[in-house]
């Protein structure tokens, strides 16, 4: 799946999981500020598994340091679409977010400063803004936008950082699932990558699901960047945008419930 599509999927998943709007599941409700900022952070987290790609969005985010880091991740994880695209990779990245969330600085003048959460939010928001092309420019603008967002949360909703590990976990899960929907699949059980028996490999249908190299796939989208992928991501992106706009309107005091009731009444037969 393409980088921008991963990011849009992450934002949509965050809306579905955390928003209290009538079109969301609301399994882990957060504030309206949390829905808006978390959607951007989760979109960035949905790019994290591609830190194993030496020429991906993350690798090009802060050269040359990001290049060195991604080459290191690529080497440790076994290459692109290996360790970071597995259950182990998801768990490690979520655990890292949790650990960073405990990196705090206590000051007399400014109180407790959430250094780890703030730093990770800046990085993830920058990745998302760049992948989604929400800000102009390739280097300066995404970092500026992410700094503004982190400062906004720090000033107006300092307790919002609690959802950071969840955002990272959801984003990584969405990324891995998205790549599972493409032809090559992912090594979900890495470092254990069991290969199918020969008889299985001779069957065209099953071999597309349990790949000869050990990857698992549900290749309904075909190759990454396919027309089917683009068609799917149109409603997914629209859903994410609707959730963010809805949360913004709620934060500003609009009666979104009445609007939703009117829409439902208009589309309901009879």
Explained architecture:
With 270 residues, the protein is an all-alpha fold. 57% of the residues lie in helices and 2% in strands. The protein contains eleven helices and two strands, in the order ααααββααααααα. The chain has helices at residues 3-18, 32-45, 65-77, 87-100, 115-131, 140-156, 164-180, 198-201, 204-209, 227-251, 256-267; strands spanning 105-107, 111-113. The longest helix is centred in the last third of the chain and has 25 residues, at 227-251. The N and C termini lie far apart (42 Å). The relative contact order is 0.17. The model has no long low-confidence stretch (mean pLDDT 86).
**Which structural category do the helix and sheet elements fall into?**
mainly alpha
Helix content: 55-70%
- What is the end-to-end distance? 42 Å
| Number of strand elements | 2
- Return the string of H and E elements: HHHHEEHHHHHHH
Mean pLDDT: 86
Sequence-ordered SSE layout with sheet pairings:
Blueprint: H1 3-18, H2 32-45, H3 65-77, H4 87-100, E1 105-107, E2 111-113, H5 115-131, H6 140-156, H7 164-180, H8 198-201, H9 204-209, H10 227-251, H11 256-267
Antiparallel strand pairs: 1-2
Helix pairs in contact: 1-2, 1-7, 1-10, 2-5, 2-7, 2-10, 4-7, 5-6
Summarize the structure.
Helix content is 57%, strand content 2%. The protein has helices at residues 3-18, 32-45, 65-77, 87-100, 115-131, 140-156, 164-180, 198-201, 204-209, 227-251, 256-267; strands spanning 105-107, 111-113. It has one domain (3-267).
